[in-house]
Structures are given as structure tokens and as C-alpha cells.
Design goal:
The complex is a heterodimer of chains A (about 80) and B (about 425).
Chain A lengths: L2 H15 L14 H5 L3 H15 L14 H14 L1
Chain B lengths: L9 E7 L6 E2 L4 E6 L4 E5 L4 E6 L6 E3 L5 E4 L4 H8 L3 H4 L15 H9 L18 H10 L16 H10 L17 H17 L5 H22 L2 E9 L1 H12 L9 H11 L9 E4 L2 E4 L5 E3 L1 E2 L5 E2 L2 E2 L7 H16 L2 E3 H5 L3 E5 L18 E5 L3 E7 L2 E15 L5 H16 L5
Parallel strand pairs in B: 4-15, 11-16, 16-17
Antiparallel strand pairs in B: 1-3, 1-6, 2-5, 3-4, 5-7, 8-19, 9-10, 11-14, 12-13, 17-19, 18-19
Classes of the chains: A mainly alpha (about 80), B alpha+beta (about 425).
Chain lengths: ~80, ~425
């Protein structure tokens, strides 16, 4: 998957969990939970969607790597490369 | 019009889910009522046959107003008609001239989801072409088990559009598709949901902004009443969550994402179980008289994205396994934010928990929801210094607080409650 596709996949997941958030204004390095006001259940849904759609296992230890769009893109691309 | 919470004075009847002549049983969901908080499904309090609907959809009436006449004498003829299933097609379109929104009722959506029926493929015979429960049952008889086979009659829609439609309560059959080959895409569904909202507000029903301000007014009046009438006392206790978090992490490692628990599930379960140590914190004061509640219906304060707060109940929280409680919590948060709750969830919490979650601050001292007598608050779990066996260590800690009603309990019993929570959280595997 190309980085821009990954970026779109992540933003789509975020839009589904926080439909009212302004994702156009969301910087690639902003802390997602803080910027979008995600609580732990929201974040779990994001993880669920990403794991489902990329087919990659995401452990709790990996959650910090999903902190921003940039870090999440890198993390998910790394996972794809390992496979 | 039932009271859906101590703070409710009136409600708008949004939609009837039954017609005159329908047989209803006590507990059946018969209508949807709009309050400042959410659209709420209300059930019927009697068993019998609907004789007459007294309130038109879109009308605001005070709490206590009769909504429908129910004949409680069984009428075998009517019963027969209903059971033979001839009903729906023959039902008169009694809602002609009614400007009802073609919403599929939550009950029908749930049934459809359970039976894997695509609502868009079911011909609706209800008012405005709405798919009724009878339609769904008819469809279920035609296709008993197998998932629906795509054919000409089925609405072509993207998977995302389908999921969105279920979540937003949009009937795919009513959505015009603008995607490739006139497929209904996510954008079409969102547009349909937005148009429905517009129609609601032009029909005199509250818009999102109105609702937010109405909710603010309600919160203000309820909290003012609480502070005026309830002599609050407050206790706090800091609890070491090292054991709980370690157990949780080990457990979650074994499980796929949908099965994982969040710390809030443990905290809620502990708060519910600890009630057994001090049952006087669980119940209601009405006219100065305390009545202890038999079951623990844990109100969970859920913040809404647009601002405001709703605290619907997780029923029998003390008797739910952690996984069940987690599933209920997820479902409740989703439905609260979608503005679709059930009457019992809004009106009968016996004690409320306010959990600040991960982005919050160290502690919260709550205001009790009348007529309840206690509110438990959990601050954010954070790593802080902690003395263990004469040494200083860093542990994940949470500050638990209790606001309780002095007319019913004293600091000593409140303290026993917080200590019970602390002990329960040291043995997470037993929660």
C-alpha cells in the first residue's frame, strides 16, 4: 500500500469514529486522541477498524505508535513490509 | 408521556410503532419520544389492544399526558387477524397526510441486523413506506437462513454505505444513489441523514443546536436542584492499579481487538460490586423517603461530542461478566452519541459513575443526579509516586471519589464503599 493510500485509510477510520471532527485541519503530527477528543473506547474502535482493514495484528504495546497520522502510517507500512 | 428522567417535563412524540388494532404486551416498544437528551424508545405499560392513538407525531405534550387508549379486554377476533399474519398488507394507510419521517424503527433495525436481512431489500408497508416489524418477519420467512442474494430489487450500496446506514438509521431503500452505476455510496447516506435532520427541524422538532441548548438548560436545572436539596458529602481514595493494569495487559495480549477491555470496564465493575458492601448508596430519595434499589443499574456519564452529558444505565452491572459489561458499555456509548436510547436506560439508573478516562485530570467530585443518592467519580489513571513496603515506587494510580447524600448515609459507610472498591481492584481476575 502506498503511503497516500495508508493516509487515506487512517483518515477514513478516524472520520467514521469522530464524524464531526474537522480532519482537513488535522496536522499529520498532531496527537490524534487530543486533537479529536477520542476517549479510550473511540480509540479502540479506530484500532479495530485499522486492524480489520489492513489485516495486521495491532497489540496494545503498539498503541503509542498510532499516536499521530505520521507515526501510524509508518507503523502500518512497517507491518505490511514484514509480511 | 412517561417521565424519562427526573428532569423531564415534556416530550415530543416522534413516531408511533403501532397502529390501532395492534395487540401489545406490557414491555413492547410502541413509540419513539424525543427529549432534550435523545430520541428514546418507550414501551407500553399494559397488555391489550391499541384502541386509539391520542397524540399525533410531532406534538409536544407534558409528562403524564395519555398517549394512546389500550383496551385490556382480549379480543379474540383481532388476535386471530394478527396471528394469521394477514395484517400488514391489509392495514389501512391511516397516516395519510401525516408528515412523518420515514425512519425505520430501531427495533426493526436490530431485528434486521440479527437476521442478516438487508433492510433496503424489504418492501415497506408502514407509513411512508417504512419497513415494519411484520414486513421483516415476512421477509425472514421468505429467506429463512441464507444471506440475501443480490438481485434487481436489492439496493446497490457500498459496504461503508450499508454500515453507515445502519448506524445512522437511514433506510437504504429511500436513498438515491449517485455512485458508479447508481450505487448508493457513503456520501449519499450522509446526505440522506442530514436531510432527515433538516426535515425534523422544519417539522418543529429540535435541531442539534436547539437540543444542545435545551440539554444545557436541563443539566443546569437538575444540578441546581441537586445542590439545593441534597446535603452532599465527599470522600476520596487513591487506588493502586498495578495489579489491575498488569492483568488487563496480559489478558488483552491474548485477544483480537474487538475482545479487548479498557480499564474503565474494570472500574465500572468494581463500583457496581462494591455496592454489595454498602447497599444504602444504591437507590432513590422520593419525598424525603429513601428506598433502596434491589438491582444495581449503573448510570454511566457519557459526554456528547457536541457538548452536554447523558448518563444512561447499564442494567445489573454487578452481575455482568467483564466482557458483557464491556460490550454493553461500547454499545451504550455508540447509541448515546447517535442519540438513540431506550426509556429504561435513561430513567432508572440507581447510582451513577463519572469516569474521566484517559484525557482527563486527576480527580472529579461529582454532583448527585436526583433522586439518586450517590455518584462515584474516577479520575484519569496516571503513573505517580507511591509508597510500597517502605520504598517509593512509580505505580499507575487512580483517584476514586464518592459524593453521597447525607440524608441516607454517613462518611463511615461511604468510606467502606471506597475501601471495597480498592480491595476489588487488587484482585482483577475475580471481577
Amino acid at each position: 500500500m502506498k503511503p497516500e493510500d495508508m493516509d487515506r485509510l487512517i483518515r477514513t477510520a478516524l472520520r467514521e469514529v469522530a464524524p464531526d471532527a474537522d480532519l482537513a485541519q488535522l496536522g499529520a503530527d498532531a496527537d490524534l486522541r487530543e486533537a479529536l477528543g477520542l476517549d479510550s473506547l473511540d480509540f479502540l474502535r479506530v484500532v479495530e477498524l485499522l486492524s480489520q482493514r489492513t489485516g495486521h495484528r495491532i497489540d496494545e504495546e503498539d498503541y503509542p505508535r498510532l499516536a499521530t497520522i505520521t507515526s501510524a502510517t509508518t507503523f502500518l507500512s512497517d507491518r505490511a513490509a514484514v509480511r | 408521556m412517561p417521565s424519562l428522567g427526573a428532569d423531564m417535563e415534556s416530550g415530543v412524540l416522534l413516531e408511533w410503532l403501532v397502529h390501532p388494532g395492534d395487540r401489545v404486551r406490557k414491555g413492547d416498544i410502541v413509540a419513539v419520544v424525543d427529549t432534550a437528551k435523545a430520541a428514546v424508545e418507550v414501551e407500553c405499560f399494559d397488555t391489550g389492544v391499541i384502541e386509539r392513538l391520542l397524540v399525533e407525531p410531532g406534538t409536544r405534550v407534558p409528562v403524564g399526558t395519555a398517549l394512546a387508549m389500550i383496551a385490556t379486554v382480549p379480543d379474540p377476533a383481532l388476535h386471530q387477524a394478527r396471528v394469521t399474519g394477514a395484517g400488514p398488507a391489509g392495514e389501512p394507510a391511516q397516516a395519510a397526510g401525516r408528515t412523518a419521517v420515514p425512519v425505520t424503527s430501531p427495533l426493526v433495525r436490530q431485528l434486521a441486523a440479527e437476521r442478516h436481512i438487508d433492510l433496503g431489500s424489504v418492501p415497506g408497508t408502514g407509513p411512508g413506506g417504512r419497513v415494519t416489524r411484520a414486513d421483516l418477519q415476512a421477509a425472514a420467512r421468505v429467506v429463512p437462513e441464507a444471506p440475501p442474494v443480490p438481485d434487481g430489487a436489492r439496493v446497490r450500496a457500498s459496504p461503508l454505505a450499508r454500515r453507515l446506514a445502519t448506524e445512522l438509521g437511514v433506510d437504504l431503500g429511500t436513498v438515491a444513489g449517485h455512485g458508479p452505476g447508481d450505487t448508493v455510496d457513503a456520501e449519499d447516506v450522509r446526505r440522506a441523514a442530514a436531510e432527515r435532520l433538516d426535515r425534523r427541524s422544519t417539522a418543529g422538532l429540535p435541531s442539534t443546536a436547539d437540543r444542545a441548548s435545551a440539554m444545557r438548560t436541563q443539566i443546569a436545572s437538575l444540578m441546581a436542584r441537586s445542590k439545593r436539596e441534597i446535603p452532599h458529602y465527599y470522600l476520596t481514595e487513591t487506588v493502586d492499579l498495578a495489579a489491575a493494569m498488569t492483568w488487563l495487559r496480559a489478558r488483552n495480549r491474548e485477544l483480537p481487538v474487538p475482545g479487548r477491555l479498557v480499564p474503565a470496564a474494570l472500574l465500572l465493575k468494581a463500583a457496581a460490586l462494591a455496592i454489595r458492601a454498602v447497599p444504602d448508596l444504591n437507590g432513590f430519595v422520593v419525598d424525603g423517603q429513601f428506598t433502596r434499589a434491589e438491582a444495581v443499574h449503573l448510570g454511566v456519564a457519557i459526554s456528547l461530542r457536541g457538548g452536554g452529558l447523558v448518563a444512561p444505565a447499564i442494567h445489573d452491572a454487578d452481575r455482568l461478566a467483564l466482557t458483557e459489561l464491556m460490550a454493553k458499555l461500547k454499545d451504550l456509548v455508540l447509541r448515546t452519541r447517535a442519540g438513540r436510547l431506550r426509556r429504561a436506560e435513561l430513567s432508572d439508573p440507581t447510582i451513577t459513575v463519572s469516569n474521566l478516562g484517559e484525557q482527563g485530570v486527576e480527580s472529579i467530585l461529582g454532583v448527585i443526579y436526583p433522586p439518586q443518592v450517590a455518584l462515584v467519580g474516577f479520575g484519569t489513571v496516571s503513573d505517580r509516586p507511591w509508597a510500597i513496603d517502605g520504598l517509593l515506587g512509580v505505580r499507575p494510580l487512580v483517584t476514586v471519589s464518592l459524593a453521597a447524600d447525607h440524608r441516607v448515609t454517613d462518611g463511615a459507610s461511604g468510606a467502606r464503599y471506597l475501601l471495597a472498591i480498592r480491595q476489588l481492584l487488587q484482585r482483577p481476575e475475580e471481577l
